[in-house]
Design goal:
The protein has about 260 residues and is α/β, with parallel strands linked by helices. Helix content is about 30%, strand content about 20%.
Length: about 260
């Protein structure tokens, strides 16, 4: 802990994650196939006690369960928070609206589907409600357009900018306190990185260039015109796939209105 604290002081760290996507541990020899949320609570409690017993480590907060899969549901999240919630500074979950895992192809229509958005919002509100029951903030700590690196031609196309802006508004309205878009450095690159880094050689010299991708512009717009502001009532009547949002920093401040056209027609 002393060595870690020198590089990352406690006042600069929101919290230390207790494992990452723990339900996936059972898919490896590291845990039995029967591993459950109750087993995770026991392990996490042991780590917390060990940290609390150390004069340096005790200064850090904790974040859990950073769950993505089988346990990302209200029941299992409730069991985990009942067991270790009083020790947490933040609840975190992982979610992607689509996936390219196992060579699944994602289309623009699938990414922008209002059905996907409704399903995401329904589950998100349930998870947020569980965290609020334990008086804890909850963040969407890992997400992007499609898990397993994104879909080329979709995650790095204009559609991802339209999707990303709408997605951030929905995440905020659902009650999440923050959102982290995932970067990936897989072999061959990842389609969903908000900023892509390209490299080339000239003789012995190595050159690098950072290039903003469509999703970056959605993040930039939300950060500049909506992040930290209050939501105002906004609605739009249409049969097309169009959404509307409005925010303002304070009573009497300027109002920012967003109309997002996700319709492919």
């Amino acid at each position: 802990p002393q060595g870690f604290a020198k590089e990352s002081p406690a006042d600069q760290i929101l919290g230390l994650k207790i494992g990452n996507e723990p339900s996936l541990f059972a898919r490896t020899p590291a845990r039995p196939k029967t591993s459950s949320p109750a087993d995770y609570v026991k392990e996490a409690t042991g780590y917390i006690r060990a940290f609390r017993a150390n004069p340096v480590a005790r200064k850090y907060g904790f974040v859990a369960p950073t769950e993505c899969c089988e346990w990302r549901n209200p029941r299992d999240l409730g069991l985990i928070l009942k067991g270790i919630g009083s020790n947490l500074k933040l609840v975190s979950v992982h979610e992607y609206p689509t996936t390219t895992c196992e060579k699944h192809n994602v289309s623009v229509a699938e990414l922008l589907s209002p059905t996907h958005a409704r399903e995401f919002d329904d589950l998100s509100r349930e998870l947020v409600a569980v965290a609020q029951q334990y008086h804890l903030p909850i963040a969407l700590a890992e997400t992007n357009s499609a898990s397993c690196g994104g879909m080329a031609g979709v995650s790095n196309a204009f559609a991802s900018a339209v999707w990303g802006l709408d997605y951030m508004f929905n995440v905020a309205q659902d009650g999440y306190t923050g959102i982290n878009f995932h970067f990936s450095y897989r072999k061959g690159g990842s389609a969903y990185n908000p900023i892509q880094t390209f490299s080339w050689k000239t003789g012995q010299a190595e050159h690098y260039e950072n290039v903003a991708q469509p999703l970056y512009y959605a993040m930039y717009m939300f950060a500049r015109r909506a992040s930290g502001e209050h939501f105002l009532p906004a609605a739009i009547t249409t049969q097309s796939n169009i959404t509307a949002f409005a925010t303002s920093a304070c009573p009497g401040c300027e109002i920012h209105v967003f109309v997002i056209n996700k319709d492919e027609k």
